Amino acid sequence: MSESWDGSFDRGSQSDDSHQFERMHLEPMYDAFVCPLTKQVMRDPVTLENGQTFEREAIEKWFKECKQSGRKLICPLTLKELKSMDLNSSIALRNTIGEWNSRNEAVQLDMACRSLNIGSSESDVLQALKYIQHICQKSRSNKHVVRNAQLIPVIVDTLKSNSRKVRCVALETLQIVVEEDDDNKAILAEGDTVRTIVKFLSHELSKEREEAVSLLYELSKSEALCEKIGSVNGAILILVGMTSSKSENLLTVEKADKTLENLEKCENNVRQMAENGRLQPLLTLILEGPLETKLSMASFLGELVLNNDVKVLVARTVGVSLITIMKSSNMKSREAALKALNQVSSYEASSKVLIEAGILPPLVKDLFTVGANQLPTRLKEISATILANVVNSGYDFDSIPVGPDHQTLISEDIVHNLLHLISNTGPAIECKLLQVLVGLSSSETTVLNVVAAIKSSGATISLVQFIEAPQKDLRLVSLKLLKNLSPYMGQELADALRGTVGQLGSLIKVISENIAITEEQSAAAGLLAELPERDLGLTRQMLDEGAFQLIISGVVKIRQGGIRGTRFVTPFLEGLVRALARVTFVLVDEPEAIALCREHNLTALFIELLQSNALDNVQMVSATALENLSRESKNLTRLPELPTSGFCASIFTCFSKQLVITGLCKIHQGACSQRESFCLCEGQAVGKLIALLDHTNEKVVEAALAALSTLLDDGVDIEQGVVLLDEAEGIRPIVDVLLEKRTENLRNRGVWVVERLLRTEEIACEVAGDPNIITALVDAFQHADYRTRQIAERALKRVDKIPNFSGIFPNP
């Protein structure tokens, strides 16, 4: 076979494939077939007046050059002058050449067909493929010849060749064979051929990918084949990937993109594109497609998993259209739009776009409408979910009217309607509507309106009862809502928890669950922490129900590393510590509280918690708890019992001896201990509190200073307290708090402590020589509140900066 190709091939001077194949012939070629100018077989022979024959295009070019150069019109072969440029078609010669060509092409095509088999050499297969390309490019009718010769399946088989060159040329050949020929495309698409072509898209060799994309692009021009291409697993995914690839050449990327544009004619392909990140075709159909298509695409959009950036794009592109569909009277249309909006609204930024597009009024209307046009429960749940998503975006809802009388979401009657709906619907919708209230109560600008509406509706007890709901999601969202409300209606919530049976117990049960810390536990601990700390009745009930023992166990377990690794550990620990600290606020009134603190040595636990670095709230609350405990120390210290003097000693003083009792607390002048009397002199508490005076959080500093102040309080030995602080190197840090004047409260507390320090003569002498301290005291004397000014005045008198007139003028 190769001998036949090679033996009849006249290489001439051309390298182009088409020229090579023009010179291939199996029948003898007559000189009359060849144009004297082009030296090639003529396609359209014409005869001049002198009888010479040329290719029409070639002789016309010759005449044009003669005219442009000003030469005489001559025959290029005889060089004799011509009288006219008349050209007469040589029909007989053209037909003869055509028949000759046909006979040669038929034989050559047969040879090519026989070369396309597994036994042929690579060069023969390549030559045959190139020949098929040549004849198809030469004449469109030859594509029918190739089809009738059943060569298309044969070419497809060469795609299985081990030779990369053969595979690339075969892909190129198939593209030429099917170009603008739907019949050939249909034959090519039979069987598994399209799948085979798609496989080439992921081949390592870029040339194969390029040729495969070009072939798929050509096939995709046939609407009948678009669905078949899209049905090949991975086809659209790979094409979408190629359009965004930085490693592909620009031509390949462009072809892949155009192929996808053609595939958009099929809705199933559009869905696949959307699933794989090419969302614009789907959005276009929602905007411009027929109604049924709009609904279908909107419904599918609701099923997609979108990343946050895409949600914003969707909201901006079709948000208004979806909201318009949502307001339709057709329930099917509303369902499709609601599903899509539910998906898009789950991101804060996209929710804000939907708010600006006007989603709130129809949403609220859907939720509150009753009667013939009301939504079925399943769709009302979706509406509630969307509203919850939107409300939790942090938008300013005070400025957006949602009702006929310009009510906003935080208007009293709207909140009342939400509360009424919560009480008269199922758990799923209840959960979403409670999430709406969570969102509204999370903002300082709207929470007071929500609180006022809840109070006026008398819904507090109803909301508290959700703590006992069997559904975990419902319990969680109710706890989050109550936690948000507790700073503003803590007493009402405490009363409700005490007044209803089981709610407080349920709250404690959630906190004590011995599992990995959950968001529900964190929210429950947070709610308990926010309740009024001085509510004696609530604290007593917690004591009766053993709540504090469970809380202590949880704190200890976390501190010992028994629970770690969840994102809710920190808020859970903060909530537990705050809830535990409330027992220290009722020590004066509740003996059981004192017993609890002694039994579990809470003083030591709170001292340990002072070192919870990076947990400011834990450190602050622990310092406050230590302040409360230490303030009670003077009442719990056991004073020594002195032995009774003998008879002689009572008469004759010379028989009496001065008793010396050792081991007493210098501060409280009695028998003290950390566990029994909560004394801070033990357990390095003073040093740890002093260390917190350098904290960056002013509230931690304030709490630590307040705890240290108990060592200088009335009822204790102040001079010994000063000595203790001095030995712990605490004087300078305390003075620095006053000098820094970080907050008004810290300044006031600093003035109080410094005045107590100045009652010790040695300290007073040191301070008198520090102009900064004097300046700070003078500033407080001039600008602080009345009580602090009085304390600052006493301090200045102690360093002789203000005359002490009480020593000059006797009291009347």
Top keywords for this entry?
disordered C terminus; EC 2.3.2.27; repeat; mainly alpha; three-stranded antiparallel sheet; RING-Ubox_PUB; elongated; ubiquitin protein ligase activity; 1% strand; RING-type E3 ubiquitin transferase; 812 residues
Textual characterization of the structure:
Residues 28-107 form the U-box domain. One of its GO terms (molecular function) is ubiquitin protein ligase activity. Its EC number is 2.3.2.27. Keywords: Repeat, Transferase, Ubl conjugation pathway. It catalyses: S-ubiquitinyl-[E2 ubiquitin-conjugating enzyme]-L-cysteine + [acceptor protein]-L-lysine = [E2 ubiquitin-conjugating enzyme]-L-cysteine + N(6)-ubiquitinyl-[acceptor protein]-L-lysine. Helices cover 64% and strands 1% of the residues. Residues 1-15, 18-23 and 806-812 have low confidence and may be disordered. It has 45 helices and 3 strands. A hairpin with a 5-residue loop joins β1 and β2. The termini are far apart. α13 crosses α14, α23 (412-423) runs antiparallel to α24 and α41 (731-740) runs antiparallel to α42. The longest helix is centred in the middle third of the chain and has 28 residues, at 472-499. A 3-stranded antiparallel beta sheet has the order 2-1-3. It is elongated and about 150 Å long. With 812 residues, the chain is mainly alpha-helical.
